[in-house]
Automatic annotation (TrEMBL):
<dbReference type="Pfam" id="PF01263">
    <property type="entry name" value="Aldose_epim"/>
</dbReference>
<dbReference type="GO" id="GO:0004034">
    <property type="term" value="F:aldose 1-epimerase activity"/>
</dbReference>
<keyword id="KW-0119">Carbohydrate metabolism</keyword>
<dbReference type="InterPro" id="IPR047215">
    <property type="entry name" value="Galactose_mutarotase-like"/>
</dbReference>
<keyword id="KW-0413">Isomerase</keyword>
<dbReference type="GO" id="GO:0005737">
    <property type="term" value="C:cytoplasm"/>
</dbReference>
<comment type="pathway">
    <text>Carbohydrate metabolism; hexose metabolism.</text>
</comment>
<comment type="similarity">
    <text>Belongs to the aldose epimerase family.</text>
</comment>
<dbReference type="InterPro" id="IPR011013">
    <property type="entry name" value="Gal_mutarotase_sf_dom"/>
</dbReference>
<dbReference type="GO" id="GO:0006006">
    <property type="term" value="P:glucose metabolic process"/>
</dbReference>
<feature type="binding site">
    <location>
        <position position="245"/>
    </location>
    <ligand>
        <name>beta-D-galactose</name>
    </ligand>
</feature>
<dbReference type="InterPro" id="IPR015443">
    <property type="entry name" value="Aldose_1-epimerase"/>
</dbReference>
<dbReference type="InterPro" id="IPR014718">
    <property type="entry name" value="GH-type_carb-bd"/>
</dbReference>
<dbReference type="GO" id="GO:0033499">
    <property type="term" value="P:galactose catabolic process via UDP-galactose, Leloir pathway"/>
</dbReference>
<feature type="binding site">
    <location>
        <begin position="173"/>
        <end position="175"/>
    </location>
    <ligand>
        <name>beta-D-galactose</name>
    </ligand>
</feature>
<dbReference type="GO" id="GO:0030246">
    <property type="term" value="F:carbohydrate binding"/>
</dbReference>
<dbReference type="InterPro" id="IPR008183">
    <property type="entry name" value="Aldose_1/G6P_1-epimerase"/>
</dbReference>
Length: 346
């Protein structure tokens, strides 16, 4: 946590910052939710924005689908907004029925983060979450950095530490549409590869059942690239949540932050996105609930974009049987770091 007090100050209004590289690629970030709000690729056919986002900051503050936001303290769902840690029961703020989704009612996506730009191609966002916020224990300090490289990678680093043992599962809730955020082509028309042998089925509320299922001979097998829509809504597991909204357990050998764990391809094959991460899971969300959401150039509807969020598995705090590798618990006075790389090929 290197930022000075001055650099970490929280501004009253959201700030917007742009990072560019020598190829003409540009990403736009906002201090509201430490969000990635635009990703403009300089294609031979013209500039293309491949990230869904709000038309302005006022609409960004109103929307409830986490467009481009950093979500936390805990991404995805916590069953019944409860967990037990060190023999103490914690009750969290619920914001999806009885469950806690993406950190609760006033989560990180709705906060104004401090912002600091050390170089023209890097931005660092910082936030302090006080002890007891949304029911979580401990004071949590968080940094999220974005860096745009000359080889068209967007590298996101999360760094955090807590004063007490606490679940922490930060994720970037970015909706990609590689055909363009203004395109009528949907997430279902994209090709997807995931280096995962297992996935987490859920109940109708999107809460993992606790089981890990092998993807073999299921509609969740993306070990060979295929159209997202090919096996879409072809089973009860998907019907429960209206499509894909599930965690995939990434193969251990791939999660070194360098190897590709997932690849997304544009409908006509002119843009590819390769993802590398140190995180153990990938949550795939096919935009099932993008209902009349105000976008930059149009109104988004279901499946207008797909989220590929690297993170710990959902509700891990309530499943110690999954093992330490998949535990989201941050222990006091330790600094935790993870990294995800989004490599654009065009």
């Amino acid at each position: 946590m290197q930022l000075t007090q001055e650099q970490c100050q929280i501004f009253r209004a959201p700030k917007v910052i742009a990072l560019t590289n020598q190829n003409g690629m540009k990403i736009i970030l906002s201090s509201l939710g430490a969000s990635w709000v635009s990703c403009i690729l300089p294609l031979v056919t013209g500039k293309r924005d491949v990230v869904l986002g709000s038309p302005n900051m006022a609409k960004q503050m109103e929307q409830g689908v986490y467009l481009g936001s950093t979500v936390g303290r805990v991404a995805s769902r916590i069953n019944n907004s409860q967990f037990t840690l060190n023999e103490q029961r914690y009750q969290l703020a619920n914001n999806q029925g009885v469950h806690c989704l993406n950190g609760g009612k006033h989560n990180f996506s709705q906060r104004i983060w401090g912002i600091f730009q050390p170089t023209p191609q890097k931005a660092i966002f910082s936030l302090v979450s006080p002890a007891g916020e949304q029911g979580f224990p401990g004071r949590l300090e968080v940094e999220v950095s974005y860096e745009l490289t000359e080889d068209n990678q967007v590298v996101i680093h999360h760094t955090y530490q807590s004063t007490e043992a606490c679940p922490v599962n930060l994720a970037n809730h970015i909706y990609f549409n590689l055909a363009g955020e203004d395109s009528v082509r949907t997430a279902l028309e994209h090709d997807l590869y995931i280096g995962a042998d297992q996935f987490l089925p859920t109940d109708m509320d999107g809460i993992p059942t606790g089981e890990w299922h092998n993807v073999a001979e299921t509609n969740f097998d993306f070990r060979q690239s295929k159209r997202i829509g090919r096996d879409f809504l072809q089973d009860d597991v998907q019907h429960r949540v209206g499509g894909y909204d599930h965690g995939f357990i990434l193969n251990d050998a791939l999660t070194d932050g360098e190897q590709t764990v997932a690849t997304l391809g544009a409908p006509n094959g002119d843009v590819w996105l390769n993802i590398a991460t140190t995180q153990p899971a990938l949550h795939v969300y096919s935009g099932n609930n993008l209902l009349a959401t105000s976008g930059k150039t149009r109104t988004y509807v279901p499946y207008s974009g797909v989220v590929l969020a690297t993170q710990f598995p959902a509700d891990a705090i309530n499943h110690s049987e999954w093992g330490e590798q998949y535990s989201s618990i941050a222990f006091p006075q330790q600094v935790y770091r993870n990294q995800t790389r989004y490599q654009f090929v065009f």
